[in-house]
Design a protein that fits this description.
Elements lengths: L1 H11 L13 E5 L2 E5 L3 E6 L4 E7 L4 E2 L8 E5 L2 E5 L2 E2 L16 E2 L3 E2 L1 E10 L23 E9 L6
Length: about 160
């Protein structure tokens, strides 16, 4: 019986590779958050202090992010510098949205304020020549959307 229920459930899910029509990229602003989603994944960014605060697998309704994380980090003059991120999360095994108000900017992070520059359909940015390794129906530029942010920051000095 469990096998039958599993096969019925999987038959009802749309495979995005077979039919991508229900999966559309979307950008929206929800208060102090910027939300990007495409029907498969949803990312939530808090504006200030800047941090990735949500990463969800939509088909399974599953949160993949366990902690308010920086978007990345780099080394500058031997010092690790983070791009965004928060500290003060009471439990790093899961993240509750109500905790965000009490969390603070990571002191090892650049204090950035993301400004949405533009978003829209992908445009061709470089010439592309079809090769034998690409399917005959491959589009160029590929279907999809882009988002461009500008990160403004106060001058950053490493001691």
């Amino acid at each position: 019986m469990a096998l039958l229920a599993a096969s019925v459930a999987s038959a009802q899910q749309v495979d995005w590779l077979l039919d991508p029509s229900p999966f559309r990229a979307e950008l929206r602003e929800e208060g102090e958050q910027i939300v990007l989603e495409n029907g498969l994944l949803r990312l939530r960014f808090q504006r200030h202090p800047f941090a990735l605060v949500g990463f969800e697998q939509m088909a399974a309704d599953r949160q993949l992010l366990r902690a308010a994380a920086p978007l990345g980090e780099f080394v500058l003059d031997g010092e690790v510098v983070r791009v965004g991120g928060l500290t003060g999360q009471p439990n790093r095994a899961f993240l509750l949205p109500e905790w965000l108000a009490d969390m603070r900017r990571d002191p090892a992070a650049i204090d950035v304020e993301p400004q949405l520059q533009d978003h829209g359909l992908l445009a061709e940015r470089l010439p592309w020549r079809r090769t034998r390794h690409v399917g005959l129906g491959a589009d160029w530029p590929p279907a999809g959307r882009h988002v461009r942010w500008r990160f403004a920051s106060e001058p950053f000095v490493v001691d």
